[in-house]
Fold this protein.
Amino acid sequence: MAAARSRGSADVQGNPKSPDEGPSSALRAPSPRERGEGEGIAIVGGGIIGICAATYLAEAGRSVTVFDRTGICEETSSGNAAAFAFSDVLPLAHKGMIRQLPKWLADPLGPLTIPPAYLPKLLPWLIRFWRAGAAKHYEASLAAQVGMMKLAEAEWMGLLDRSGTRPMLREDGSLELYESEAEFRASLPGWAERERFGIGFRHVEGEEMASLQPGLSPRFVKGTFVPGWKTVADPKLLGKAVWAYAEKLGARFEHARIERIEAGTNGATIMLADGTTRKAKQLVVTAGAWSHLLAKNLGDRIPLETERGYNTTLPVSAFDVKRQLIFSGHGFVITPLETGLRVGGAVELGGIERPPNFGRSKAMLEKAKRFLPGLDPSGGREWMGFRPSLPDSLPVIGAARAPGVFYAFGHGHLGLTQAAATGRLIRDLVLGQTPPLDLTPFRPQRF
């Protein structure tokens, strides 16, 4: 089984187009020189958040350059579970995760693990995570996430239409599965909270559950079907297609590894690994799991940690999965993609330096074989990516302490889901417009 490792969506690589390769004059945005705007806007990070921010700014006629060490959607944004999880509004700290921690940590290949050697470094983040789960924070966190999800769905539907990528959207719903009545009953408070905000679902069993996904193991006694849940044909292909639209509007890409950023009243300076520098009038940091390191250059200390996620993408023929299947008790999902069947999820809080442990991918695949008898596990490709996560489960979206710099990172499991909303919000902040959402819960200085 071939193994592929992602290094997150931090700094990036790829070669900018020459002027001769640019878009037609009818679509091309005016250059910075033509508008008298100096060096324009730089975006550090070519994952889905950076791509969407660049697209919204290019649509507004701004000159934008995206910097990334690898390419457009080549790292963490390429290997996610492909869900537009607009109904996933419960903050992670309130999902019973604290209650599950002792059981999960006892299994080194289970839904969540922490390498023992990493625990001392992780402890401050875990304490913040535990505090974020306190009842007094619940309503505010939930309301913030609900507002973000409503904006995310509206903005994604609009962006899919404008970019011509709507055919990549799949509206088949999701099916969450339970192995016991006790597990099902434990899920009910969370569904009641979703119902408060008008999120549709229905609990299923027997023939109805079997019709939603034929071939399930009889170990599953009940399920919950969410008809409004959406997925995409392939997250990497979607990101590249949205970027192609941005390029037509004049957005540019530069393949570069960023070492450091600085900012002052005259703009931002980006220092590259090759010793050269780039100037920008304004700067947006969308560097995924590496973003807090760049923010630290500017005096902002943001407690970001890295959830290392694993998956195996099997050939399309591995099993006829009708819609995304969610095994919340085991911390993973199975998603049918245009390019294969993706079995993945789980959380390893282990930072960005440790080598991947693909035993986690194999453990999920073994469970998938039990859950879907007849699944062909051969021919898969293993992958690991870095989810940039903050202890209160909300991203950082807002202005840095330094002038002209903005942050958009820390979306955890919801980067793809919330990318278009984040792009809209960053556009409004950069242009000095009033955002459609109260950004107080997302401000960088909240910690």
